[in-house]
Amino acid sequence: MHAAFLIPLFPLVGFLVLAAFGRRIGNPRSGWLATAMVLASFVTTVVVFVLLFERQPAARSVVETWFTWLPADRLQVTAGLLIDPLSMTMAAFVTGVSTLIHLYSIGYMEHDEQFPKFFLYLNLFVASMLLLVLASNFLETFLGWEGVGVCSYFLISFWFDRPSAASAGKKAMIYNRIGDAGFLIAMFLIFERTGSLGYHTVFARLGHVGTPSLVAIALLLFLAACGKSAQIPLYPWLADAMEGPTPVSALIHAATMVTAGVYLMCRISPILHLAPDAAHVVAIIGAATAFLGATIACGQNDIKKILAYSTISQLGYMFLAAGTGAYVAAIFLMLTHAFYKALLFLGAGSVIHAMNDDQDVKTMGALVRFMPITGVTFLVAWLSIGGVPPFSGFWSKGDVLENAWVLSPALWAVGALTAVLTAYYIGRCYMLVFRGEARWSEAGIPGDGRRHGRALHPHDPSWVMTLPLVVLAVASVVAGVINLPFHPSWVFLERWLNPVVGAQLLAHHWSIGAEWAFAAADAVFAAVGVTISVVLWRNAVNRPAVEPAFLQRAWFIDWAYDRYLARSSTELSDATATKVERDLIDGAVNGFAGLVRRAGGQLRKVQSGYVRNYALGVMAGLVIVLAYVLSRTVS
User: What pTM, to 2 d.p., does this model score?
Assistant: First the structure.
């Protein structure tokens, strides 16, 4: 247990070494160093995980305290780690998937001039995420929360010479700052009500906190989660985040930043359990986001944006699970999603690499003949995220839908429709990219002036890029075994997480017939989505009927934000700067100053400097005084 501090320390050391000597270490050694640091963190995580597993369930929560960080009167915040089943589960998949993404990046970024700096940012990103999930109190979590936020800014705008990339980084930062305000206010309220920020202490004192305060805390933290995990209304930044290098997209979507919000909801499960109204809001927003993201993905042509909106949708599923009290289902889906979403993004990166940075699925086609490893692994990812049995997504997504039915059949219906759409839009992407006829030529992409004439020879990348694809494909197939519903001894993940979330889990028991009915329905949803995608897109490139403009423009929501919030706010700021600031405030101050100046100018005339004027004034004053005295005497 005492070695747990090495888990976030290894990537942090990698960041510091690369910050000091990255340019001297050079390419590709700086990439191998960064990968080795994350791999060391993964190995340490496995060791600590095993040691924790060997303990009795009641003893699987250990707080490693290093020192008192903030000793300020009643505010006593310690620095340390919380080692429990939830934090170690998060650390295991964060370090494991991040190691594969680091390895892939060595090949993907090999020709980039800023190669060492890229891996410097990646290591800091992973270290921040590990601090976030291993923190023993809200303030430490917030430190890691801000760390992944700033690293996302660095990496999304990594190619900052592109205006679109610079703009996307700023957009991500602004959206996340809105959510972070909720986290800060929630911490103030938590400390005011409980006198502590430590998780164990806060949860032990929830009985003395009123329901209105619990609801407020839960909703404020959910606002923070909406920013990090791209939920309504703070989701648009994630699609623009695709401007960063593809391995960054994989890291953000699969292993780090966007999973932070779901983790936070599971960590505060005792608060959500005592504030059911807030939990219902989480479930409703999650379901709505899942459906919205899925519909938008159906109309996108940029391969990375299809996957980005897919992530928004899948995160909605996770929040739906957390809002229904199905915290194990949320973590289960997060784990399986990490594998197949990382696989999808890394597969997309291989395609983009082979197509000379072209990302339009309409200009691809037939690539499975030239890139068989990428094509097959992408197919595995499609079947998994689509929920086709026996792939991992079938088990995790089915778990979410079963629990949604308990809370509300309407939420289940939204989730079921989203499941069909998920199998469809990833299938559409696969068919346009890997099947059909080639819509490109070896001389270049016809009709594209920017790339025309550049030779295209699509092929699978080097082993450092294909090995992560194969490993993630295997994980996408077999990861479902960690929580199979056939027997109580097979639900390993549920029994593992029970000491953390067991008291807050949604309690329900299905009959064998009901379990099979749900499983059959989930299989039908996947089959329908897969079938529709194959039928529609096997030999077609454009189908306007199922690609309406409003889906291509993402329901015009981002446009509405820009027009009615961003631009109107800018106009209001301009009006405030000119009318209020310059004319009203400055005008009032300058007007008062002018009044004083004019009054002073008139008063200066009294001080003429001539003695006869002063003598005249004295005599006039004397006459006035004598007249006053005489009037008083006569009366």
Answer: 0.90
